[in-house]
Each structure stands twice: as C-alpha cells, then as structure tokens.
C-alpha cells in the first residue's frame, strides 16, 4: 500500500480503501461534518459509522456537501443489537439509509453477535445484498465460534470482520482464521484510544523513523493487511494518522510490536454482551 487511495479487494470483488475514518463518539452536527470534510480533504475515502453512533445524518450531509462523486467514497454502517432479527434488521436498514440519504450502501455490518438473533439478522443482510442495496455485507466483533456458526447457516460469507484490534490485543488466532476464509479483518480502536502511546518499544521504533507512536501502530496494522479506522476530530491528528504510507517497518520491528500483545480488551467481550 503506497498511498491513502490504495484499496483492498474483498472476496466478492468489491474494493475497499485500505485505511479509513471511524466516527464513534463524533458528535452529530457541525463536529461530524467538519471532521469528515477535513478527512476527505486529506484523502480519506472510507467512512465508518453505525446507527448506534447517532451521527448517520451528519455523515450523509458531509458526503453530499463534499463535492466528491459518490462512487469514490466507501460508506459503512451497522445494525444495532436492539434491531437484530430478520424483519427488524430490514426496517433498521431503511432508517439508516434515510438518515444517510444514500441510494446504496458500500458495507453493512452486524454490529455484535447477539445470541439467538445474529443468524436471522444475517439472512436480512443477505437479502439486501442480493437486491443490490448493499455492495458488501459483513460482521463486527465476531469470534471464531460465531463465524463458524454463521458459515454453517448462511448462503453468503462475510467479506469483513471488524474487531477490536491493536498491539495489546493482536487477535492472531482470529486473524489467521479470517485469512484462511478470505474474510478481511478491520480494526476498530486500532490505537486503543491512545492508552499506550508512551510504550518505550513504540517510542524507540517511532524515533528511528522520525514518526509518532500512533503512526507506527497504524503502519503495523497496514503491514499486517488489517484495515484500520482510527477516530479523531483533531485536524492535526487526522493528518498525522494518514501519513503512514512513506515509511516501512522492518520484520524485526514488526515482531517487537507483536510481542506487546497482552490479550487486553478495552471494549466489551463479544461473548458477554448485555447491551
């Protein structure tokens, strides 16, 4: 990957940018619109939202006001847990599309594997995919056993599994499973919300490349073929996060970062969700 405009081909042939912007906790209104406009100006083309984030309308306005052709953008949203099930998912999709103001969606995800419901939710996503309303469908926060269950009861295979993933939670076994099944891994909270940017190993590597620890972590994702969607509302951070295409980590540096793994989650465990 040489530039922010480079893409990854998903198993159904759809191309997704290799790097993007997550907008969790970006406020509806001027903040979301200004953040997305700044990101688009910097070359970001993948915008990842969700109905739960309560900012789909702002995402839609920012897209319409950007002047960038719709086909050059890749927009993701997700069905929330309380909307899961076949009919309610289809209804939730229509609500999201109305808020976004889009004719089609690039990627629709099952936000969490709600026990007893995610199979029916997936059936609804398959219908939307077959109808051409969505160019690609995938899941979020699915562990291996969730994926195995889904694959046994589905016609379409997820193109993406979006999971909490960073050097403190490297999820190697799950990543290897997804790679074997040609499911693209996407990382939410790729920087663990800045919790370990002072880590000496990262700082040493960053200094050797004249980069920041955050840039080193995002480069680690990139070189592991992981799509990272860091969130920021700060223009300087948006710019910094995108400047990861002009250097390369050595194999030794990649292994040093791999060794930081502690299987430490900062978000919920998908096996124990009560929301």
Characterization of this structure:
With 275 residues, the chain is of the alpha/beta class. Helix content is 39%, strand content 13%. It has ten helices and ten strands. The protein has an eight-stranded parallel beta sheet with strand order 3-4-5-6-7-8-9-10. A two-stranded antiparallel sheet has the order 1-2. α2 links the parallel β4 (46-48) and β5 (74-79). α3 (86-100) packs across α4. It is globular, with a radius of gyration of 18 Å. The N and C termini lie far apart (37 Å). 45% of the residues are buried. The model has no long low-confidence stretch (mean pLDDT 97).
Keywords summarizing the entry:
10 helices, eight-stranded parallel beta sheet, globular, about 15% strand, about 280 residues, alpha/beta, single chain, two-stranded antiparallel ribbon
List the helices and strands and how they pair.
Blueprint: E1 7-9, E2 15-17, E3 21-22, H1 30-41, E4 46-48, H2 56-66, E5 74-79, H3 86-100, E6 107-110, H4 118-130, E7 137-140, H5 144-152, E8 160-164, H6 172-180, E9 184-188, H7 200-209, H8 213-223, E10 227-228, H9 235-242, H10 251-258
Parallel strand pairs: 3-4, 4-5, 5-6, 6-7, 7-8, 8-9, 9-10
Antiparallel strand pairs: 1-2
Helix pairs in contact: 1-2, 2-3, 3-4, 7-8
Q: What's the pLDDT, averaged over the residues?
A: 97
Oligomer: single chain
Largest sheet: 8 strands, parallel
**What would you call the shape?**
globular
Question: Order of helices and strands, N to C?
Answer: EEEHEHEHEHEHEHEHHEHH
* Number of separate strands: 10
Ends distance: 37 Å
| Rg (CA only) | 18 Å
Low-confidence stretches: none
Q: Please report which band the strand proportion falls in: under 5%, 5-15%, 15-25%, 25-35%, 35-45% or over 45%.
A: 5-15%
Main structural class: alpha/beta
Can you count the helices? 10
How are the strands ordered across the major sheet? 3-4-5-6-7-8-9-10
Q: What percent of the residues sit in helical stretches (DSSP H or I)?
A: 25-40%
């Amino acid at each position: 990957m040489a530039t922010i405009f480079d893409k990854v081909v998903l198993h159904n042939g759809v191309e997704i940018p290799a790097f993007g912007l997550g907008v969790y906790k970006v406020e509806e209104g001027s903040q979301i619109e200004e953040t997305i406009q700044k990101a688009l100006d910097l070359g970001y083309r993948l915008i990842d939202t969700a109905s739960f984030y309560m900012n789909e309308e702002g995402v839609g306005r920012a897209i319409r006001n950007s002047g960038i052709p719709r086909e050059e953008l890749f927009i993701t949203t997700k069905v929330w847990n309380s909307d899961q099930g076949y009919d309610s998912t289809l209804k939730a999709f229509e609500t999201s599309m109305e808020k976004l103001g889009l004719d089609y969606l690039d990627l629709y995800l099952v936000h969490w594997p709600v026990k007893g419901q995610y199979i029916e939710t997936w059936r609804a996503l398959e219908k939307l995919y077959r109808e051409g309303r969505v160019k690609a469908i995938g899941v979020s926060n699915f562990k291996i056993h969730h994926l195995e269950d889904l694959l046994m009861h589905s016609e379409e295979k997820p193109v993406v599994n979006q999971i909490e993933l960073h050097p403190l939670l490297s999820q190697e076994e799950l990543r290897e499973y997804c790679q074997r099944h040609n499911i693209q891994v996407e990382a939410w909270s790729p920087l663990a919300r800045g919790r370990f940017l002072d880590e000496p190993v990262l700082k040493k590597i960053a200094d050797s490349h004249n980069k920041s620890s955050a840039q080193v972590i995002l480069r680690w994702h990139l070189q592991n073929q992981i799509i990272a969607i860091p969130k920021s509302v700060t223009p300087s951070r948006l710019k910094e996060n995108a400047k990861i295409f002009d250097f390369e980590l050595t194999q030794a540096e990649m292994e040093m970062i791999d060794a930081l793994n502690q299987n430490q989650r900062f978000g919920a465990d998908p096996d124990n969700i009560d929301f």
